[in-house]
Design brief:
The chain has 21 helices and no strands. The chain is mainly α and 600 residues long. The termini are far apart.
């Protein structure tokens, strides 16, 4: 497969040249420029719009999924096309990434090309080549040394499924383009800047909000509610699809490594068993060897048992990332930035542009490394449960275990109870009564000051010792939450004030800002109106005023029509008057009076 990856660059470059020849450039060069000889041919082609593409989303996502095996090679740093020194390894990985991207470039270019008839043929042929080579790889070497039968198929079936989908997609594109070419169907009009869901979002903003008649279900209230006025961009769909497949491949690779380590540990256990049998259980090291055997057995069982919960945790994170993306984008569209740290309210434009290029790759890497870390943490927790609860019962030490567990729970309960008691005493004796019956809590005003100072003095020495436990609990909770949320790139695990050190979270915020600035429905609708006005040479393109503009009778000046539209808008939305720019003759007092009238 690595050898074919090198040779696949030849048809890839050929397809890119053909699509580039068909792509016309919008601006021709001057005669003194050497590219003038090319005319308006050989335009720049792009694989997909990473910002504003909402159509063909799942096709792009499946195309990303077809690259999963190569991405895993890059992730494991096992794909090294060149032999260069260790200090230049970053350049080697960059070259390998460019080669993988170039070999899969025709998938995306053929899906996004305007010349559907040619691109569908080229894309189908290129996908068929990759599909045939992958099937040949699986058929020649179906088994492996770790899992055994059909090990290679376990690695390559996601890519085969994605390639089969692309074959069907390109075949559908060819049939549709051929029917248009033969005149059996009408050609689709030029794609509008404004997407349908964006137009529906703007319409929803302009409508008067109505009370909800239908009661939401538990799933809609607690988990997810579908919004017809919102769609995820192709970049997010492709990232999630590729992350799912890469996570599956990573789990399979991890299991293969586990099988190898398990076999080596079995050999080691056999040696320990032979020593114990040779010494007839009377050797000096026999108790130690028995404990080592027990540790190995428990570790293997716990590691296998925690594969499923660790996998489900990361899978839930992938879905939760989509939920957080929609929630954060909607808040930014509403002008709400309170969920962001203060230093991210106005990020640098260059950092945001770089962030959207980093996000997809970093999200996948965070999920993979996060799975491994979460798996290790869950295994350690499982080991603690086994040695703290299960094994004492197995060794007939359940009574001692329950006694120690009861003492530990009682000790922690007393500590927590004393802390709660301090709160109750402070609320009952050291705070003044409520100012009103509607107040939820007492005011922060001290009462019984002499008793309070004695209370504070005597508890000072006790709280020094209590602070030690609080410090250790803070460290333990920080470690658990940090390792548990390491795969969540949408949430920083740094302390307040140090969020800038979290590069993953910075990439998330920069990506949100780029999407917010370039896909905001209100902004896109405004640009759509400007483009429509430029093409039609009218001030308004809505159906409501078309007859007014073209009716027979006296002509109305553009200024008068604009003022009429402004008056109608202000009548329908009176609160917009507050935000209008004041003329030089109007005073601030008049604006305050106007605001008071509107509020009344």
């Amino acid at each position: 497969m690595e050898l074919f990856l090198h040779y696949s660059l030849i048809p890839s470059l050929f397809i890119i040249l053909i699509l580039s020849f068909l792509q016309r450039r919008e601006h021709r060069r001057q005669r003194d420029d050497t590219s003038y000889l090319l005319g308006n041919r050989f335009g720049i082609i792009m694989p997909l719009d990473f910002v504003g593409t909402f159509s063909n989303r799942w096709s792009y996502g499946i195309a990303f999924g077809a690259t999963a095996n190569k991405v895993m090679f890059l992730f494991s740093e096992g794909y090294q096309p060149l032999q260069i020194p260790q200090w230049a390894q970053a350049f080697e990985l960059l070259i390998g990434g460019i080669e993988v991207g170039l070999s899969h470039f025709p998938f995306f270019a053929c899906l996004s090309s305007e010349f559907q008839l040619v691109s569908s043929i080229l894309g189908f042929c290129y996908s068929l080549i990759w599909f045939a080579v992958t099937v040949l790889q699986v058929s020649q070497c179906p088994h492996g040394q770790f899992v055994g039968k059909y090990e290679t198929l376990m690695f390559y079936w996601p890519s085969l499924l994605c390639l089969a989908f692309l074959l069907g997609r390109f075949l559908h594109m060819f049939v549709k383009a051929l029917r248009v070419h033969l005149g059996w169907e009408f050609q689709v009009e030029e794609k509008s800047v404004l997407e349908t869901h964006q137009a529906e979002h703007v319409k929803q903003l302009l409508r008067t909000p109505r009370p909800q008649e239908k009661k939401k279900s538990w799933f809609q209230t607690r988990i997810y509610e579908w919004d017809p006025c919102f769609q995820f961009p192709s970049r997010m769909i492709g990232t999630i699809v590729l992350a799912f497949i890469c996570l599956y491949l990573f789990i399979v690779i991890e299991f293969c490594v586990f099988v190898y380590v398990r076999d080596e540990l079995d050999v080691f256990e056999n040696k320990l068993e032979s020593y114990i049998t040779f010494t007839n259980h009377s050797g000096v090291l026999t108790p130690v060897f028995l404990q080592v055997k027990e540790l190995i057995s428990v570790t293997k069982g716990v590691w296998v048992a925690t594969i499923l919960p660790a996998s489900l945790t990361c899978v839930s994170y992938l879905f939760h990332i989509l939920v957080c993306y929609r929630k954060h984008i909607k808040r930014l569209r509403a002008g709400d930035k309170h969920f962001l740290p203060l230093k991210f309210h106005n990020p640098a434009s260059s950092a945001s542009v770089v962030a959207i290029a980093r996000y997809s790759g970093w999200q996948i890497a965070y999920i993979l490394w996060g799975y491994l870390i979460i798996h290790v943490v869950q295994s350690l927790c499982g080991m603690a449960i086994m040695y703290g609860l299960v094994l004492p019962i197995v060794h007939n030490q359940g009574l001692e275990m329950l006694q120690g567990l009861g003492i530990g729970i009682l000790t922690i309960s007393i500590f927590v109870g004393l802390m709660i008691l301090q709160m109750c005493i402070a609320a009952s004796f050291f705070l003044q009564p409520k100012l009103g019956t509607a107040d939820k809590q007492k005011p922060l005003a001290l009462n019984n000051r002499k008793a309070f100072h004695n209370f504070n003095y005597f508890l000072f020495f006790y709280n020094v010792l209590l602070g030690l436990g609080a410090c250790l609990s803070r460290l333990l909770i920080s470690c658990l939450l940090g390792t548990w949320l390491i795969a969540r790139i949408d949430r920083t695990i740094m302390q307040n004030g140090y969020e800038g050190a979290d590069m993953g979270f910075s990439a998330w915020i920069g990506m949100l800002y780029v999407d917010h600035y370039h896909t905001n429905p209100v902004l896109v609708s405004f640009c759509h109106i400007l483009i429509a006005n430029h093409k039609e040479k009218k001030l308004q393109q809505t159906t409501k005023y078309w007859c007014l503009n073209h009716s027979a009778g006296p002509r109305v000046s553009a200024r008068s029509r604009t003022r009429w539209f402004l008056l109608q808008t202000l009548i329908n939305n009176p609160r917009l008057i507050i935000h209008r720019k004041l003329k030089s003759g109007h005073s601030s007092q008049e604006s305050q009076i106007l605001m008071a009238c509107l509020e009344s």
